[in-house]
Amino acid sequence: MSSFKRDKKEEEDGVGNIFQNIEKTTVLQEARVFNETSVNPRKCTLILTKLLYLLNQGEALNVKEATDVFFAMTKLFQSKDVVLRRMVYLGIKELSSTADDVIIVTSSLTKDMTGKEDIYRAAAIRALCSITDATMLQAIERYMKQAIVDRNSAVSSAALVSSLHMTKMAPEVVKRWVNEAQEAINSDNVMVQYHALGLLYHIRKSDRLAVTKLIAKLTRTTLKSPYAVCMLIRIIAKLLEEEDSGNDFPYFDFIESCLRHKSEMVVYEAAHAIVNLKRTTSKELAPAVSVLQLFCGSPKATLRFAAVRTLNQVAISHPAAVTACNLDLENLITDSNRSIATLAITTLLKTGAESSVDRLMKQIASFVSEISDEFKVVVVQAIRALALKFPRKHNTLMNFLSAMLRDEGGLEYKASIADTIITIIEDNPEAKESGLAHLCEFIEDCEHVSLAVRILHLLGREGPKTKQPSRYIRFIYNRVILECPSIRAAAVSAMAQFGASCPDLLENIQVLLARCQMDSDDEVRDRATYYSSILSKNDKNLYNNFILDTLQVSIPGLERSLKEYTQNSTNQPFDIKSVPLQVGPSPDEREKKHKSEGMLTSQGPLRPPPVSREENFAEKLSAIPGIQQLGPIFKSSDVVELTESETEYFVRCIKHCFAHHVVLQFDCLNTLPDQLLEDVRVELEPSEGFELLSVIPCKQLHYNETNHTYAILKFPDDDLPSCVGTFGAVLKFIVKDCDPTTGIPDSEEGYNDEYILEDLEITLGDQIQRVSKVNWGAAWETAAESSVEKEDTYSLSSMNTLDEAVKNIVQFLGLQPAERTDKVPEGKSTHTLLLSGVFRGGIDILVRAKLALADGVTMQLTVRSPDDSIAELITSSVG
Amino acid sequence: MGLFQKFANFLGVRKREVNVLVVGLNNSGKTTVVNRFKSEEERVTDIVPTVGFSVEKFQNKNLSFTAFDMSGHGRYRDLWEHYYKDCHGIVFVIDSSDRLRLVVVKEELDLLLQHPDVCNRKLPILFFANKMDSKEALSSVKIAAGLGLDKIIDKPWHISSSNALTGEGLQEGVEWLTQQIRDMILSKT
Fold first, then answer.
1. Given a cut of 80, is residue A560 above it in pLDDT?
2. Cα–Cα distance between A459 and A475 in angstroms, integer?
3. Interchain contact B78–A (C-beta under 8 A)
4. What is the pLDDT of residues A457-473, one digit of tens each?
5. How far does the CA of residue B22 sit from the closest CA of chain A (Å)?
6. Residue B107 — very low, low, confident or very high, per pLDDT cuts 50/70/90?
7. Model pTM score
8. Using only C-alpha atoms, what is the Rg of chain B?
9. What backbone phi and psi angles, to 5 degrees, belong to A583?
10. Mind telling me how many Å the CA of A567 is from chain B's nearest CA?
């Protein structure tokens, strides 16, 4: 049947793709004709084409297959057929990464590359660079240098681009080709000039001064190639972005002058650069925006698109400037190109007034089904911005979003809609009910598992707090009946949350959970059993700890601790308190996520998943004797500088807090080229109660080297108030004078010296880890029974706004704000800040700070903690 | 093969294409030897160590030779075997002034002779005792004895001392090879 179908399809396609039904094994078989004594170019070319087709369709050859076919291919070098030879080059490039011993063709390729046949040379260079490794590069260096300055522009371009690729592999070798690249930049050919600039910049990009020189030189001469000018603009923009000085930087004028360049591409690039520069003032912005405005009316679709896209990106940062173009943007709404129309509308949405929202939404609705997913995401993002700006319009927007949810679309698109709805719900309590209802409806028919799981989690968290929690249960239980195991498991967890938070629903939930215990999947059954047994205990405390609050430990930390635990055979049960805690994302990390992409298109490699700082330090510290037995690291503080950064010795300190100890890590940098420091250590004068256990000196400290010395201290026992203190610190070392060039000491004799450092503070924040509580209120209630409560009132006279006070308190106490109370609503004169955290040793702390604004800020601070001395410590240290 | 072609082959009118493999240790002069065989205008003046291999073409009598000039560097010697299968003859170049590495030559030669793609075929092997102009050069007889060439009984072989810089001795060797390959082809058809 299926073959019949395929036949029919082929008929419909007409002539269609002749390669459609080829198979790897057949092609490899056919490739054996390469080995024949006399080569038939036409036949071989066809086979190579098939092979390339297969490889480009994603077919993978194993090493042996690739090597075999590669060596067979090498025999085709005996043919003089031009087409075949060029196919061979392509084949080499495709197979170079999989086959073994690809360097076998080096000589053949160098021969082609330096030969008389121009048509071979560029392609041979590209193929050669794909097979070369760092060790072989030396052998072909001479040819590459020649090729870069070759008169033939194709050859020169190929060599330059290949060099650019090889900088990844052998940066040092390619660096030596600077002179050739310099020469190529003077070429008359537009592409050569562009590629030469690219290579030069890449070679020098790590050296700010060299880049500046390059720019200075190039801005004085006029580059012929518009591509090169665009590249230059990007380089300058990047430099301006990094530089701290203002826009009086002379090269800004160059960018501005490019606005009057004769090439449209350059003009656009310059406008794009100016608009995107962070510090551009409105005066500087004006000419750039007017250029973009001009482009909006251009008959060329690409120009209109580019202009609208740029305006769209900066609509938030420079709304006033973009508003000036509103009239042109209105005209583009009806543009026949849907991409342009979408961008125009979303730009208008970002800058528009509240009154125009309804009209614009209607416009979008008319064509939203005709645009691609990528643009739909842009629309959704615009709506999100709009919802944050005009909370009152949530009804219109929410309806629109839910309509979009019902349409077809990929995961990314759907996820962005769901994200937007979630943001709206979190930001705007009025929209919560309708938002949750839309999401419920969506998961009824959602093919993306990850999204469904997320929404179920959200329902579990938010649903119980609504007026009518029971209406969500049906939606959730439907999932248990209809979906795959991972969604069922998520649904079970969500239901348990309802059971824990709404006593009147408990009975019904128990019935549903009992049914889930018959599930075919292990995870679902496990969860159902777990929750139903906790719910049957009817203990508020248990609910809070095991259903509502999720596990607070860091997952990689837990994994490592468990691994260690299973390796050491002990009878003791595993202690979850020994696992480092999960740190909530800090505000600047969150901000980074939202930052748009950089100016230069080259994106860095994907960053590895973030490991908490404690993890990183734990690894380093565990290598040091004496530190391992202190237990797991509890918290590492931020870096504190103990000297000015330009002094002879630059010392910074990181405080690692353990359950009963604190390890001070001093990073010392020697900035004197004529000195070698030995036995470097920091002598401390600990405040009362602290006990200095040991000092681990750093044996040698060469010029321009950073090394570590450590001091291990024990916290005072049973005397919490003195756990906070200030230490005097002195850097002590033996100096040996040495030769500044070689770094070898002049004599074996050294002399003792010391250097006074700034005082070091052990603060409360160092000893507290931030922990976010999902259900702060419930935890607060339970703490009322089990914990000690301390209360005090302070007047913070130095603060003038609530915002400032909140920021300071959070920073000082090192606690995690809960339930978004770190954001002070505008125009209020009172605010309640809810905080939570864990003191070293694993003791919970909950803090409620009631703030009132009146001639400075007055604060009533209530602390609840199981340990009364900790509560005491916190209240006493504030103020 | 058509009757006419057979006839033409017999008379040697049509040019036959054959592949030969040029092997030997590094710095023995393989590329220089091949360079000599090429016509005057195609020759290159400076010769650099070959990396991998290079393909060259030359004519002798009415045979058209395609020579796979292999790199002799230790690192690439393992790659020779990829080309054994479809060659019609082997040219083995030896630096006759390099007494020290004669044992290495023997080892490589033995490996070559034992290779499954070579050992069962009646491949003609031509040895060039190259660099005969050098003072320390061993005579071709001594080299033949040193390599134990007399033990090769299943393959035709020939050794001639040569100087690839001047071309001395090369013609004699390649004529022998041409004759052998032609005989081999004729006996097959």
1. no
2. 10
3. yes
4. 888 888 888 888 888 88
5. 14
6. very high
7. 0.58
8. 16
9. -100, 130
10. 45
